[in-house]
UniProtKB/TrEMBL annotation:
Keyword Signal: yes
Name of the protein in question: OmpW family protein
Pfam families: OmpW
Signal peptide coordinates: 1-23
UniProtKB keywords: Signal
Keyword Signal attributed: yes
Annotated family: Belongs to the OmpW/AlkL family.
Source species: Daeguia caeni
Length: 226
């Protein structure tokens, strides 16, 4: 009888020990945190494609001709820019596009009409600061430099026209509104400080001057962040 009782007690002890171990395992299992998926980091590269309105300031002169002035045509052209983010806030942007400009006499030389036509290639590099505390709305400001190349130049009322390549400054403000982490829409305004010198021959007389183009570049388009 005593052996039977001891057997029952021993079995009961084993059952209780097993239950305690299972409960301890359950507590340990519940305390293990579940790993959350880490979102993939965005690439530092971004591109934009814009439709760009080029609005020059109508000013300039021919040396030695009192009251002379110049007038330039407005254009719309496509533009591509490439942005590299060093951090979430600091980036550099290279702006690429080309357009043409008709150069017209104004002021005392208005009677000349269309002096000539030139194509303009103004690659512009800006350093940008991007604000990141507005959610999907991501405004930025920038400043930089451009080197403008004038090519395919054709004289009309003039006998000959040569607009000289030149450096200039650039200011920029704009924003991206991101639809998702990759795609967004963009609005951008730039001011180029562009005042090239030129040589012109009219009626066999060689002259020189300065074209104060200083255009506003107003663009809108799409953004893609890799």
């Amino acid at each position: 009888m005593k052996r039977f009782a001891k057997g029952i007690l021993a079995g009961f002890a084993l059952v209780m020990a097993g239950s305690t171990a299972m409960a301890a395992d359950a507590v340990v299992a519940e305390s293990v945190p579940v790993a959350e998926a880490v979102p993939a980091a965005l690439s530092p590269w971004q591109i934009r494609l814009r439709a760009l309105s080029v609005i020059p300031m109508n000013s300039g002169y021919v040396n030695g001709v009192a009251g002379s002035d110049l007038d330039y045509s407005k254009t719309i052209t496509p533009e591509l820019d490439i942005t590299y983010y060093f951090t979430d806030n600091f980036a550099a942007e290279l702006i690429l596009g080309t357009t043409y400009s008709n150069i017209n006499g104004a002021g005392s030389i208005e009677g000349l009409g269309k002096v000539g036509k030139v194509w303009i290639l103004p690659p512009t590099l800006t350093a940008q600061y991007h604000f990141t505390n507005f959610g999907a709305f991501k405004p930025y400001v920038g400043a930089g430099i451009n080197y403008t190349v004038f090519y395919n130049q054709k004289a009309d009322a003039a006998d000959d026209l040569k607009v000289k390549n030149t450096f200039g400054g650039a200011l920029q403000v704009g924003f991206d509104y991101m639809i998702n982490e990759h795609w967004g829409v963009n609005f951008d305004v730039k001011k180029l400080f562009l005042e090239p010198k030129f040589d012109v021959t009219v009626g066999g007389e060689k002259m020189s001057g300065k074209a104060k183009i200083n255009p506003w570049l107003i663009g809108t388009g799409i953004t893609y962040r890799f």
